[in-house]
Hints:
Layout (H helix, E strand, L loop, with lengths): L1 H27 L16 H9 L2 H12 L2 E5 L2 E4 L2 H8 L6 E2 L20 H12 L4 H7 L1 H22 L2 E2 H18 L5 H4 L5 H19 L3 H7 L3 H15 L1 H9 L8 H12 L2 H5 L4 H15 L1 H16 L1 H11 L8 H5 L2 H13 L6 E5 L5 E3 L2 E3 L4 E5 H4 L22 H6 L13 H18 L4 E2 L11 E3 L3 E3 L5 E3 L4
Parallel strand pairs: 2-8
Antiparallel strand pairs: 1-2, 3-5, 4-12, 5-8, 6-7, 9-12, 10-11
Helix pairs in contact: 2-3, 7-8, 7-23, 8-16, 8-17, 10-12, 11-12, 13-16, 17-20, 17-23, 18-23
GO molecular function, one term: oxidoreductase activity, acting on paired donors, with incorporation or reduction of molecular oxygen
Cofactor: heme
Keywords: Heme, Iron, Metal-binding, Oxidoreductase
Amino acid sequence: MALLNSLLYTAAAFVAYYIVKRVVNGLRSPLYHVPGPWHTRFTPIVNRYYRFTGEALLYRHEMHKRYGPLVRFEPNLVNAVDVSSWEQMHRMGTGFRKTKFYEKLRIGPAATLFGFIDVRVHAARRKLFSRALTLEALRRNWEPAVRAKVDLCVSLIKREVETQGTAEISRWWKLMTGDVVTHLSFGESFDMLASGGASEKKYFDAVELAGVNIILSDMIPFLKFWALVLPFQILKDIVAAQEIVASKGAVAVRNLRAVDGDRPSLFSNMMAEAEKTGNESDKKESLTDDDVISEAASFMLAGTDTTSISLTYLVWAVAKWPDVRRRLEAEVATLPPNFTDKDVEALPYLSNVLAESLRLYNPGGVTIPRVAPPEGVTFNGHFLPGGTNVASQGYTLSRNESLFPDPDKFDPSRFENATDVQRRVAQPYGIGARSCIGKNLANMELRLATAVFFRECRGVGLASNMADDRMMDQMVKFFVYPRGNRCDITLGSD
């Protein structure tokens, strides 16, 4: 009994010490003056609870409405959602670097472009990738393949409506973007559209769980250990997901190293573009097999859900506004029969629809953390010392009422005469050297899919089960996704 009491007293002492230390640190913190809920001075638990439930985006947005553009969410995490702070955080040369969170973004045996913290390492890898991902290079090498998958996807959506009365579009868009990104990354498509999602289902499920793995690993220490000892299959699946995704990278390696080169990929394009420059430093910047495996897996994670979710929200928003739909249908009807991405890019109203949809429903509009430079920074009159974790949130920034009147309304016409600051803020792919490397591919997919869909599927409306708009609330796993995880449509509304 004496031993038990001694252990209990020791445990209580440790708990008391932990609490007192938290309180003292919170009261002495140089961030004490930053606005925010009282508990953020002492513990990250509330913010991390909302991250765990997927509602962090909406929670932070409400806190910004209550406390203003600068809000403290954890003892060492401050969010800034005004234009000046956002640009300072992400502009080149301002000294803000990625936090250690990005080191957890590795999927596979090697670090990737998205996860590099070292600026020089990131710049070298980005330079290698950028030539193969210019709009000109993508149109030259990949537009026919992308267009074929778009055409197939839209025909399958249309057939499902004709045979079943409704179609669940988020599923089809995800199969399409998955086929596109596997074709480009691996040199061969997984043909998910043709199989209706049956082929490689395990792999695509793992891609989704890999994003969950990244978030949970940041919040739960020793996640792999808990997956081993706890009897929860979902936890085991989450931990195993990254290995499944990475294992498929062997396909990318095989096709890249093949002597005949009959299955080109983005990676072979990158090597070819580097050779064309004649620059010895470009030629030396090669990719190891582990690099290819990891980058291919990273492209899968970043390039599948983001574009498919964007298309889902776009169709949902247009279907809710018949006047917008009719005007868009009329514009895409003017395209020539064998139109190209360049033809679609020239359509002003379609461009405005895309811009407005991405303003409101940006799948990457989540909190983007950075570390304040050693000399510190002043945001909104509050000094934040060097080493403070700071972040922006595109979801809130793009709903700034002073920039976008009636910000929650889907109104493509607001971009007809957009101001410079409105266009600067409406950057769904980020700004600066860390902006999304795949934005040209994403925009090509979005343009072609929007044009083909609204030419072939006229009169789109929402199915009866979509009456509750809360189904489309923006939740967060790794990227943003609809709360209801589906969007059902009908055709022939006119």
